[in-house]
Amino acid sequence: MAKAFFRLQKFLRRIQFLLFFLTAAYLMAGSLLLLQRTRLVLQQGSRGTPTNQALPVPEEMSRVGIIDPRALQNPPGPRLLVGLDALQEPALEQRHSPHWLMSRNSELRQLRRRWFHRFTSDQEPLQTAGFKAMKHTVEHKGTYMGCFTHDSRERTLKGAVFYDLRKMTVAHCQEACAERAYSYAGLAYGAECYCGNTLPAAAAKPEECNSECKGEKGAVCGGVNRLSVYGVEQLRAAARPRRNVIYRGCFRAPENLTDTFPASLIQPNLTVEMCSEFCSKKEFPLAVIRGQECYCGYPTRRFSLHEGTAGRHCSGTHNASSTAGGEYCLVYQTPVQDTRCTDRKFLTTKSKVFVALSSFPGAGNTWARHLIEHATGYYTGSYYFDGALYNKGFKGEKDHWRSRRTICVKTHESGKTEIEMFDSAILLIRNPYKSLMAEFNRKYAGHLGYATDRNWKSKEWPDFVNSYASWWASHVLEWLKYGKRLLVVHYEDLKQSLIPKLKEMVEFLNVTVTEDRLLCVENNRDGNFKRSGAKQKNFEPFTQEMKALINRYILTVDEALRGRNFSGLPREYVPR
């Protein structure tokens, strides 16, 4: 009996081991299958497989040539444009069906997303290299003043504000404040930098500043409602030669200078540098000189800087003594930031009207968001997520685009379903020649750089134009067709007449703002994403075939706008 029991026990142990082995083998096989399937899905997604939904073709597009999406890998030349003669060719008729148009739009949108994600992944090493270089040059040169309390609503350091939610360092904040002529730099939440000329009054315990800097391990960048404050006087002296004091022009002086400007100084032998330094310490963005008198302040309704006078009224020189006791004054922009419009927040209650800020890529959407946020005081959202924008202070970038906590939502989408999700939209349109170049620059050099000669001369540029030029037209046409309530804004008009156009946009968003706040936005009009660096002069990347393609789209969009009782495209869009 004992022997039989021992055999049974031995058999069960073998079965147990066998079951364990089979279970492990099953799990391993399943994991391999899952990995293989995931790889297959990713490969299919990277090819931009179109959906099978269909859209009617706008009437205007029937007169213009569109590119077959099947040719995106080998795009055709402009010779495949469909004109009156080409419409008679049977081989091209299928390329203008409703199914074809939706397929084309879908592929272009997926192509855009693929390029966008490739750019954001490629951009990181460039940004990191820049911060490493900065660390070696200015690391911790300021004097640590201590840990202080910080209230975001009633800031103690009332000067400029900077965000870098990924790569903030102590040195970066110190250098930024020093270059703008501030005496103190304060860091909070590990990623926010505040500048000012007055030391905060309420000190906190040293251990309460315990947030590690996002871009510098082991370094402290304040804490929750706490500021790590540094004195940057030494850095200010080193940064003085690099500061930009910008001449704004010669203006008629207001009737009562002392009532118009909050701070003033009378100084014999007054110089521009002396007045600018005085106003910078007082944290004012404008330095106004009349003879030996120096005044500091902001652009206001009394002194808006919109009506400059001929330079001869100021004797054609920037020498302040030449305007002594006169009715004209010289105006300079100090390095100090105008902070009257920099406070932003999310909507306290969900918006009842879902508003889109729609544009073709490269049409100035980021700049328009900067203007809207500073004018209204509310964050804008995004249909996508761009880490570079989020890290620079566009906090709505990370909020879900349908949360309705933002004043409007950026989108480049143009399908019927995507458009009808919104109750209304600001449709931002830019010259396609400029838009295509801006988007190509962003693709290869980020938000702030320029593509190289090698990029422009590569095969990618003509391929890019052939595929994206038709998207520029179809984007506008579909928003005109399916948009419920539209405000059409031309980028060029916004740039030339900023305050009137921005006022229209703000009223469309049902927000009331003061004139002084709009003047503050105008004073900070460029934002953090204006391209800098060596721009190619007299550079013409468009061939005659490209121009012929784009010009047809321009005429089509112009006709469509007029057909919807909107003003046509600006004159500078007219074919070259």
From TrEMBL:
The keyword Cell inner membrane does not apply. Pfam families: Sulfotransfer_1 (PF00685), WSC (PF01822). Residues 141-233, 244-341 form the WSC domain. SMART domains: WSC (SM00321). The keyword Repeat applies. One of its GO terms (molecular function) is sulfotransferase activity. Keywords: Repeat. Belongs to the WSCD family. This is WSCD1 protein.
